[in-house]
Amino acid sequence: MTGFSPPRIFRRRHSGVAAALALLASAAVVAALPQPAYAQQPATTTASASAARTGHATVNGVRIAYAVHGDLTSKQTPLLVLHGAFMSGEAMAPFVTPFVASRPVITIDARGHGRTGKVGGAFSYDQMADDAAAVLASLRVERADVLGYSMGGSTAIAMAVRHPERVGKQVIISGAARLDGWVPEVLEGIAKMTPEMFAGTPMETEYKRLSPTPDAFPDLVAAIKHIDSTPFAYSDAQLRAIPGKTMIILGDADGITFEHAIKLFKLRGGADIATATQGFMTQPPKARLSILPATSHIGVMAEAPAIAEQAIAFLDDAMPPMPEGFF
């Protein structure tokens, strides 16, 4: 199985909803991918590069689950990985394995998700950004680079706006800085979701397996519907003011619009006219944009190795190579 495929009768009667469910069914893709050793075994209490140290950080009375891969006392800047809707930190294994050999990696189970479980009613990107910043503080991490996918991408942007002192570089994968950055039909489909539509899907199964509140999946569905129907928008001025560099990644058949991704890229310092004019770069760019061919919102998860190769060069501030024979 390479992704969530609703029954035929479901697709005929609920085509718009099916599209939205398929868009959010990233856990199904993750389940189909080869899992690294640490994802197949219980987490240990050691902090070695090959094992996860798990715990909870209390944020305003809420216990947020996290896992640490690698040594946070090393001199390498940690990478904080933020998952998408209906996922968990564990489901982001494809985006942990490629990075953990060269830097410590931290994953978080967002409010309502994974081992954090139900924490109340609706939540917002601002709240999840504050949660993530508080987890870093509890781990005594002064600053981390942040990689976020989908809901996690928007949370990463919120973190950079609200907690710039905690955030270094950002890798925004299929995430938006405002609600209308999504394709309208996707949001329309999400608005029609019901818990019953998830019966037997990997999202529901994984939630029940991980959550300390396994019967609260309907509350998570309601919370996701709320966050994807509540307008939010970080202003152009706020986005320009983010100090760290930004890389934006999406598929060419993604749920995020090209217009939004390109505007965000430009606001973060991309599309430099001087570089375009001279035809070559003399220093690493302020922003990077990657549009993956033949790739949907879910398909992005299957492109983790290619994305990691690009993202590592970005995080390391590697200078793009110059071709031979031009100078």
Architecture overview:
The chain has 327 residues and is α/β, with parallel strands linked by helices. The longest helix has 14 residues. The chain is globular. It has an eight-stranded mixed beta sheet, with helices on both faces. Helix 2 packs across helix 8 and helix 6 crosses helix 7.
What would you say about this model in short?
This protein is α/β, with parallel strands linked by helices and 327 residues long. The protein has 15 helices and 8 strands. Helix 6 crosses helix 7.
Gyration radius from CA atoms, angstroms: 19 Å
So what's the overall shape? globular
What do the pLDDT scores average to?
87
Strand content: 15-25%
Give the count of helical stretches.
Answer: 15
Overall helicity: 25-40%
- Count of distinct strands: 8
Oligomerization: single chain
Topology record:
Blueprint: H1 8-13, H2 15-24, H3 26-32, H4 37-40, E1 52-59, E2 62-69, E3 79-82, H5 97-100, E4 105-108, H6 125-138, E5 144-149, H7 151-162, E6 167-173, H8 184-191, H9 202-210, H10 217-227, H11 236-241, E7 246-253, H12 258-267, H13 273-278, E8 287-296, H14 299-302, H15 304-315
Parallel strand pairs: 3-4, 3-5, 5-6, 6-7, 7-8
Antiparallel strand pairs: 1-2, 2-4
Helix pairs in contact: 2-8, 6-7
